[in-house]
Amino acid sequence: MKNIKTIIFDLGGVLMDLDKQKCIEAFEDLGFSDITEYLGEYEQKGMFMDLEDGTISATEFRDEVRKHIGEAITDQQIDEAFNRFLVEIPEQKLTLLRQLHKSYRLFMLSNTNPIMFESRIPELFRIQGLNIPDYFDKLYLSYQLGVTKPSPKIFEKIIADSGILPQETLFLDDSQKNIDAARKFGFQTYLVAPREDFSFIFGL
C-alpha cells in the first residue's frame, strides 16, 4: 500500500461487529419463519434488498414484513428485530478513525438501510461523544445511492462524486466480492477478517 491519500471503510464486519443469528432469531420470534431465505451474511434478498438499494422506503418495508408474517406487529418491533444484527463498534476502531483522519480523507461505503442508519448506527458511533460526520469526510450509503456493492455502478458514483484517484485510495471490506469489484477500478484493497484489529496495516 503506497501513496494513499484516501481510505474507504465498509461498516458492518469492518468497523462494526455483527451478529446475524441474533437478528434471525428476533425475526423468527415475530413469526418470520423463513427469514434465513432473505437475510444473508453479505447480501440480502427480497424486501430486505429492496430496502438496502433504496427501491422501497422504511415504511414500505415494514408493511411488506407485516404482510409476509400476517401479523399486526408494530414498527418498533420490526426495527428492534432488524437492529439486533448490530453488536458494537469497538472503541479502539473509533480511536483509529480519529487518528487516521488527521492524515487521510476518510469515506464510508456501506450496504445499509435507513432503519439501521437512522437509529442504532448513530448511537454506536457516539461512544466517544462524537457523531458519524466527525469521523468521515463523506458517507456513501447504498439506500441513498440506489445501488449496492459489488455493483460497478457504486464505485463509479464514488469516483465521480469525490474526484478520488483509485490508485491513491485504500478500500477495506469484509467481502471478497466487494474487494474484487474495487480492484477492477484500480483501488488498493484489504480484506478484513471477522473482528480483526487491522490497525497494523497503518503502522499503528
UniProtKB/TrEMBL annotation:
**InterPro entries for this protein:** HAD-like_sf, HAD-SF_hydro_IA, HAD_sf, PGP-like_dom2
Q: Name one Pfam family in it.
A: Hydrolase
Xref: NCBIfam families: HAD-SF-IA-v3
Q: What name does the UniProt record give this protein?
A: HAD family phosphatase
What is the source species? Coprobacter fastidiosus
